[in-house]
Fold this sequence. Notes:
Layout: H1 2-34, H2 39-100, H3 105-141, E1 145-148, H4 149-164, E2 171-173, E3 183-186, H5 188-204, E4 212-219, E5 223-229, H6 253-257, H7 264-274, E6 278-282, E7 291-297, H8 307-311
Parallel strand pairs: 2-4
Antiparallel strand pairs: 1-3, 4-5, 5-7, 6-7
Amino acid sequence: MNITRRRGTIAVFITLGVLLTGLTVFLNITWILHNEGHLALLILGIIFFAILVAGVVLNTIFLVREVRRNERQDSFLNAVTHELKTPIASIRLYLETLQRRPMEEAQRQQFYSSMLADSDRLLTTVEQVLKAGQLGQRHRLQSRTLIDLGTLVAECVTITMQRHHLDKDAIVLAPVPGGVRLRVMGIVEDLRTAVLNVLDNAVKYSPDGVHVRCSLLITHYTWATLQIADTGVGLPPDQYKRIFRRFYRVPGRTMQRIKGTGLGLFLVRNILRQHGGDAVASSPGLNQGTTVTLTLPLAASNGVPTLEDASMEKA
């Protein structure tokens, strides 16, 4: 119902903008016809009406963007509300059950495990919301350290597999070609968040089975590249850039059934760009998986990263 109402509002703004633009153009033509012999008035009128047309067009664009931004924010609030209420309700139910009746130790331990999983989900949601608001400030205040990217990715793979209770072959981390150690300068907490968000998405958007492959390699001699490829729902080409916007969720019934805040990939791209890198997505098509590629500049002595510097760090 809300989506239909918003689409109607957007249609009204666009129609009104077109009508006002048409009216302004008509008045401009009328002014030109009535003042053909007065050059100064003719030029003045053309400039004035051009400004009016530009103002109407820009105002219409602004209003449409505001409606869409409000729609994304409403979707974000609904998603965050769900992501907060669901684990809290689950934890409360388990606690009330433990309080009301005795049970065997095995079942009690199962309840504890479920509550820990719910608390992790709750903590992840809270951290994403907080980090979205504090990312720029932390980027300015925190000092950067030398990070072994291979070790960091391996830790993130282990955390993701434990968090989602996956089999050991669900996420595969391929060895780095040549056995080199890829080191980057950065804030380890932020980079861990970025990698975990991409891995969590790869798992969430693989409803028919998780098969994720992570590859680390050196590209263009000076860049460390991490590719995370899944075999999930995939993406249409027009979504490659949009998925990195704040609060954005891919439309479609399949996508909307998968809960999320719309902040994960927004954080990923911002973190990577603050570290001098970038994040991009690609997909062969719907239901053919998605590959998210993260790139970071290699760290090296004297500030000039080279392949030889990376090769000196062989395991």
